[in-house]
Amino acid sequence: MKKNDYDKILFRLTNIWQRLRESEILSVKELAEEFNVSTKTIQRDFNERLIHLLPIEKSGHNWKVTDGHSIDKNLSLEEDIVLDVLKEIAKSMGTDFGYKASSMFSKLQNSHDNPIYSKIEIEDILDKTYIIEQLQKAISNSTQVKFHYKDKTRLVEPYKITAFEGYWYLYANDIKVNKLKTYYIKDINKLIITDNSFKKSDLAQKKLEAALNVWFEPNAEFFDVRLLAKPDIAKYFKRRPLSKSQIITKEFQDGSLEIFLQATSENEVIYELKKWQPSLLVIEPKSITKKILKMSQEFFTMQSDLIS
After folding, report:
1. What is this structure's pTM?
2. CA–CA dist 181, 209 (Å, integer)
3. Is 59 exposed, middle or buried, given 0-12, 13-18 or 19+ CB atoms closer than 10 A?
4. Residue from 7, 5, 12 nearest 32 by CA
5. Sign of the four-CA dihedral 136, 137, 141, 147
6. Cβ-count burial 198-223 (b if 16+ within 10 Å, e if not)
7. Which residue among 10, 98, 169, 245 is the one 20 to 30 A from 123 at the CA level?
8. 257 with 247: CB under 8 angstroms?
9. Which ranges in the chain belong to alpha helices (H)?
């Protein structure tokens, strides 16, 4: 077959694909006349070339997209599940965000009942679309940005837009004090991208990736933490580590786990301990042990007073 023949076939198939994509019902006879080929050639296009790639069916002497399907939405089962999960997470980010996300996903996926349910709660930042868009550009180009935040003008080097516990933050270096900080996205206003570029720090990125939660201190050194997870919660730390630095160092006969990880602040560790009390205990450092014990005693006192 000559190259010119390949070009003609490609042109014909592309044209047919585009028209099917627009939900046209295509006549074999009319296509044959249009492309100056035999009806057998057109039938071969559908039966041997297109039907294996697209959700189409024959209806008399015509071809159309199968009912309930559309072109450009041929996903594998795995891809379909991924989109279902993403749609459910998008819904948890607020009504407006969820609606726009569903509209976008519908362009990729055939309609069906979503079998996925998610209880993840993430705040809706659709009202900050412009801010997010500008930050994305600045982060991609390693460019400094200036914005209004809590009655002050800030000049920062933006690293990442992050989400902690369902809230959105900008992780950036404050140029005035040369310190890495997190800025609550919804409090950022009047943002502009400057003409000044900067070089990103690998250590700053590492601190963010190792963070347990928003209470991490990006300017502090890492320190070692050893925890004891009791049997009733041990399985959760096997399923999903607290951080990238987590290592299970011991497994006891009763099902308990000894866990090693690194942190940058005591509050970062204490916040996690609160979520798992009383089944997550501190072995080291002792300073955190004392603080969590004091907090527990204060809680016990206040709770006792409330019900007495």
Report:
1. 0.65
2. 14
3. exposed
4. 12
5. negative
6. beeeeebeebbebbbbbbbbbeeeee
7. 245
8. no
9. 3-21, 28-35, 39-44, 77-91, 95-106, 129-141, 202-209, 231-239, 266-276, 286-307
Q: Give the HSE-up count for residue 94: Cα atoms under 13 Å, Cβ half-sphere.
A: 11
pLDDT at res. 3: 42
Name the token pair of 268.
């970062």
Burial (CB count within 10 angstroms: exposed 0-12, middle 13-18, buried 19+), residue 70 = buried
- The CATH number of residue 185's host domain is 2.30.30
Q: Are 118 and 88 in contact (CB under 8 A)?
A: yes
Q: How many domains does the chain have?
A: 4
What totals of helices (H) and strands (E) does the chain contain, helices first?
10, 12
Q: 3-state DSSP call for residue 162?
A: strand
pLDDT of residue 6: 47
Query: Is residue 26 a part of any domain in this protein?
Result: yes
Listed as ranges, residues in the chain with pLDDT below 50 are 1-4, 6
Q: What is the pLDDT of residue 230?
A: 97
Indicate whether 50 and 87 sit together in one domain: no
Residue span of the structural domain in which 89 resides: 75-120
